[in-house]
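Lab notebook, bench 4. We co-purified these components, and the gel suggests they stay together. Before we commit to crystallization screens, I want a quick structural picture of the whole thing.
Request: model the full complex, all chains together.
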Amino acid sequence: MDRKIKVGVIGATGVIGQNYLRLLSNHPWFEVVYLAASPNSAGKKYIDAVAGRWHMRTDIPEKFRNIIVEDASLVEKAAGKCSLIFSAVEMEKQAILAVESEYAKQGFAVVSNNSAHRNTTDVPVMIPEINAGHLDIIPLQQKNHGWSQGFLVVKPNCSIQSYMIPLYALMKAGYSIDKMIVTTLQAVSGAGYPGPASIDLIDNILPYIGGEEEKSEVEPRKIFGKVQNGKIVSDESLKISAHCNRVAVTDGHTACCSIQFAGKKPEMQEIIDIWRNFSGPPQELKLPSAPVPVMIYREENERPQPQKDRDAGNGQAITMGRLRKCNVFDYRFVGLHHNTVRGAAGGAILTAELLKAKGYIK
Amino acid sequence: MDRKIKVGVIGATGVIGQNYLRLLSNHPWFEVVYLAASPNSAGKKYIDAVAGRWHMRTDIPEKFRNIIVEDASLVEKAAGKCSLIFSAVEMEKQAILAVESEYAKQGFAVVSNNSAHRNTTDVPVMIPEINAGHLDIIPLQQKNHGWSQGFLVVKPNCSIQSYMIPLYALMKAGYSIDKMIVTTLQAVSGAGYPGPASIDLIDNILPYIGGEEEKSEVEPRKIFGKVQNGKIVSDESLKISAHCNRVAVTDGHTACCSIQFAGKKPEMQEIIDIWRNFSGPPQELKLPSAPVPVMIYREENERPQPQKDRDAGNGQAITMGRLRKCNVFDYRFVGLHHNTVRGAAGGAILTAELLKAKGYIK
Amino acid sequence: MDRKIKVGVIGATGVIGQNYLRLLSNHPWFEVVYLAASPNSAGKKYIDAVAGRWHMRTDIPEKFRNIIVEDASLVEKAAGKCSLIFSAVEMEKQAILAVESEYAKQGFAVVSNNSAHRNTTDVPVMIPEINAGHLDIIPLQQKNHGWSQGFLVVKPNCSIQSYMIPLYALMKAGYSIDKMIVTTLQAVSGAGYPGPASIDLIDNILPYIGGEEEKSEVEPRKIFGKVQNGKIVSDESLKISAHCNRVAVTDGHTACCSIQFAGKKPEMQEIIDIWRNFSGPPQELKLPSAPVPVMIYREENERPQPQKDRDAGNGQAITMGRLRKCNVFDYRFVGLHHNTVRGAAGGAILTAELLKAKGYIK
Amino acid sequence: MDRKIKVGVIGATGVIGQNYLRLLSNHPWFEVVYLAASPNSAGKKYIDAVAGRWHMRTDIPEKFRNIIVEDASLVEKAAGKCSLIFSAVEMEKQAILAVESEYAKQGFAVVSNNSAHRNTTDVPVMIPEINAGHLDIIPLQQKNHGWSQGFLVVKPNCSIQSYMIPLYALMKAGYSIDKMIVTTLQAVSGAGYPGPASIDLIDNILPYIGGEEEKSEVEPRKIFGKVQNGKIVSDESLKISAHCNRVAVTDGHTACCSIQFAGKKPEMQEIIDIWRNFSGPPQELKLPSAPVPVMIYREENERPQPQKDRDAGNGQAITMGRLRKCNVFDYRFVGLHHNTVRGAAGGAILTAELLKAKGYIK
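Here is the predicted assembly.
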């Protein structure tokens, strides 16, 4: 690859934007050249725009410090500078819908972290190992809107990655799953910055995260759905019930899952084998951020744990453990993923790599 | 009540023993006069026996400091000093079975925190609001063993109190429940002292607690069971599947529950009303430690929380919240209780109060 | 006391205001009848004004729930309703100076938690055990401003109470102290709500609290000062250097202190005896919130600790430990106090009790 | 470097031993070929010997898993297998003194983490940037004991690295320091595994660490001392007083330091420049683990912090911040280092690299 693809990050000063810059600072395919944020930041060097609110554990990469931040709503500023936009703009929903669509209209490939477009029927919600095929909707999306070149894809909510690929691998192996009850123990970084007050998570847990359970129940159906008649049609066969809790963990969402199969049921060892041997398009296409293996099954009783397992596969792998019979459903297990890598910016970057490999971004 | 019942605590130097002394220091019915522990502690003043390992947040009650600790295995030492024994001995299972039985044989009423006798068919596992009727087995237990006066009752594992009374109240109102999937987020005090290493719970959760899931699934069936043919026969109609996690909370176990009714289903408001209006024998008998109300339902989204709800009813009440429809079963909710009060020493004391009120202890 | 003094709390909806209501709900001398806050809250019932932001661990006391909140800046609203105002208004400094002075001008006794007036030379900064005599300035303060009846006193910053009374007791016993280097480990509740983000205090400490070190160094000098020529003149003889850190503790500030005496030095046991035997005006006047003893010295190595010692004396006592020789100065020790009780609302209430006992409030 | 030096780790199954293996798994100069531990572990594969007690966040390096663990007290087992021994044996002090001396006697270069030999006058306590010259004592040490080839060096306690190099850099620039009062906030990993109980560090700090203050005060004097008359003579001119606290942090010790110069005093900016420009033998010799720069000074108010700064220089750098005037001494600042890397195994490895570069190990 001689020439890197020029990339813009809009919403670059927020925590997700910062994660993009952290993860893209040495990317082999993508080169960040354009940063945009709110009007307050416009005109400032990036280092000044984030002064006092850079929250990553590593410092601002040198190469981004002096880039002049633009106003994210002035789409024309990006023209000619980049072809791919990662969106992490923090606005109210209608404004996000508008600004992301405008970037697509102006010819940019837009990969978004926001939830605004997740229910738009011609916008794919991507977990590249699962629904790479949903990208087939892009030409139709372009046609629907009269966009010549630009398009829009999004990544799902960060609460679901701990179990989506494990479930999908079993489905792909021929085992239908029709019920899952899942309880998540979610890290505070999932709430952005500042997120929960420390006084609420010292010697405490919070048994509620606004909107999270609904997203955890609805988004999987779209991701497991099919492109039909120019729409992505959700798979209604899987019923999910989610309890979402916030716990005193910096990074790493844990999910305690009980699942029931619709028809035939695999043996326990077969499940583990399916998980360990699974690979999807990112692995097959050898995408730069694709973890190999994508799923790790730990035999130890006390695993997976956020502290020890979140960084597996550079934060892109899913780690499972404690597969055992369920007294009520067929099986239960624990899944874990890194919510700000696989579950947020890292998942979006993997999606963009898939878009590049499939020829949607040039 | 003119005269208090004389009480002994065996295993008095451990954390549960300390909790007994903390909770019994001003009890209106019971007066602790006898303390026993391992041979190492025997012959020492209590204050010296626990020097450097008193872990309560309040100091050792004055009145217990100078009591000379006896060897818990020398049952004869207790003779003539007390009639009720709270057992928190820390031994291996066979030794516990033997020593607790020996105290009963020697005429003491024994109320134990240990799990050793929970599967003994003529030993009731007590949650006084639920199975006060199981005390009817005591005469038979005495007959089985040839005990003239002593007997043995135990309290259940600390993981289940967050949901047992809520479930029972619904059952008592005529609604059978046949399935529950529950995930617990359990406090570290449940593991005794020292319990989990701090390095394992800073920025982390542990998705496993040895033996806890099995107890959480099996013990409820016995508590919901019936005295039949001289045994307590478990109710096999309720299937429970439990995921037990350890989290960085000092006190207060939280349970995320999804339940399915067997036949007719109450409306949501009816459930809340049932919970709020429920009372059991401890409330009706006005036992000193009985919380009124025994169950609190909070309307706020973020409740119950360990920090704010564990001390409800002096740690004896159960707090619930977030009752809502479940996509898979009928309903889901969150329950919480104080694991070292209601779930341990406090639950045992409430049981002893019931025994006294029912005439089993004089 | 037949009749309670009628009290208003301004800034009643903030966290400090909430602490006032929690601590005053059963006060023997004071009855809260007036609540005021920002214009946003004005006209609402208190329970509605704090809906979703009541942060105490116990519920809103029943008696305050239906009080209609007034606009704190409309001083005339309080007229005739109460004679004592506890101020916890959250405004910018100039506005606080103005509003608190206006209440005093209108005849109210004002006891404030804010720092705005701490440098005003005729406003005493009160720790009742130390500088009860500073109240002598009140007539002069009234004369300076032409106030007929109202006046203004304030409580100091919450970082200093762990060592102020210990130092004062030694000074009063005739031992001058001229140098102290102190490092504090401060609880998050000291920062109000929401305070530090949880992601910044999980697996972390913050080695800086804005403005805290300056206050910790300057305020003690005024408190140890004298009323002279119509002013409170600071005692410049004690030099303090403070390092202030934020740690993952909900309540309870800890201070590691090294002190040097100016002239003669007490023996170690003498220091402990002085501390244990010390009492001040609050104890002598038997004020309702006065802790007896006011200082507790613990012999155990690992004390004082926030978890076990913050609630001593209902949060009004100071606990010390680890007194030992210092290699550089004379002695070192650890002090601890409850920052939202003794260090905030509780300290202000104790001050108001002193004012009442001394006849300044009727 | 064609051939790597063969290395043994004794005490290989403990937490420090595990850290050695983690840090040495890809070392350019050293190859671990020999592992020894207690008799319990002897004869087992390493992976089996640490089963259930591997506490690192990354997995056991593949290459060490099948090494058969020997009994560390059977020194002859190591003969011919390696020339350098890293000692992390966990025994009582006399046994450590004996076993480490025996390895030296048998011809091994021994670099130890233990405190046992730190007061032995001919054993250097090494911080390679400071006292590389102390290695000159090795020939004398060998002569004293009649050792032909083996020798013994140790690393200091983990509490002091946050300030030792900062102090030394100033001393080397010509500024004598004669007093320091320091308060440390130390991570739990410094206590080994399991270390403090989680219940003692949730919503709490512990104001005491057994033996830590004494080590923090005494060891610096030896490190700043001189080789004279065949001994390392401590520098008695610097008086240190240390308050050591344990806080809920996994890794990273923080130190709040107040220092006084003996004679002339540098300006604030000069201090920062001295720190930033300092380099010692490890940097000059380009040792593989030497951080460049060795000290980082952060301008932000809230730095250094464990979470963000402990990994600087791969855990080998020291990070400082908050340099400011002290009201009592001349200056104060905050220092931070990674206690299990620079403060333990990493510091020992850097020492071994220095020994190799200086020709003491071949």
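The interface with chain D takes residues 179-181, 183, 185, 200, 203-208, 210, 217, 239-241, 243, 245, 247-250, 254, 256, 258, 301-308, 321-322, 326-329, 332, 334 of chain C (CB under 8 Å). Worth comparing against the SEC data before the next meeting. The first helix of chain C runs from residue 15 to 24.
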